[in-house]
Amino acid sequence: MSKENRSGSDAAVRSRSDARPGPDVRRGVRRASAFLARRSLKAHRRAWGAVFVATTAAAALIGAFALVVGSLLLAQPPVERYAGADAVVAADQQVTYTAKPWGSEPQTATAYLPERVRLDRSVVARAAAAHGVAKAVADDSVPVTVGGEGGAASGSGRSWAAAALTPYRLTEGHAPRTATEVVLDGVLAAATGSGTGDQVTLQVDGAPRPYTVSGVVGAGHGGGSPAVFLTEEHLTALAGHPGTVDAVGIVAEAGVLTGALRASLEDALPDRARGDRAIRVLTGPERGQAEYPDALGARDELLPLLASITGTVFMVALLVIATTLSQAVHQRSGELALLRAVGATPRQLRSAVGREVSRVAGAAAVLGGVGAVPLGLLMRSLLTTDPLPLPVPVWLPFAAAAAAAVLVALAARPVSVLAARSITGLRPAAALGAAGAPEPGEPGRVRTVCGSVLAVAGVSAAGAATAQGGQAAAVAASGAATSLIIAVALLGPWIARVAMRVLGTPVRRAGGVSGFLAARSAAAHNRRLGAAITPIVLVVAFVCVQLAAASTLERAAGRQAAAALRADLVVTGPAAGLPAGAARAVREAPGVAAATGVLRSGVVLAHREMGDPKLDRFPVLGVTADQLAGTLDPRVTAGDLADLTGRSTVAVGEDRADDLDVGPGDRVKLRLGDGTEVRLRVVALYERALGLGEFMLPREALAGHVPALRDQRILIRSTDGTAAATAASVRRALAPYEGVRVRPATADDVRIAPTSSDQDNAMIIIGVGVIGGFALLAVVSTLSLITVGRRAEFRLLRMVGAGRRQVRRMLVLETGLVAVAGLAIGTLVAAVPLVAFAVSATGSVPYLPPERYGVLALAVTVAAGAGALWPGSSGGRSGLGRRM
Question: Model-level pTM?
Answer without folding.
Answer: 0.81
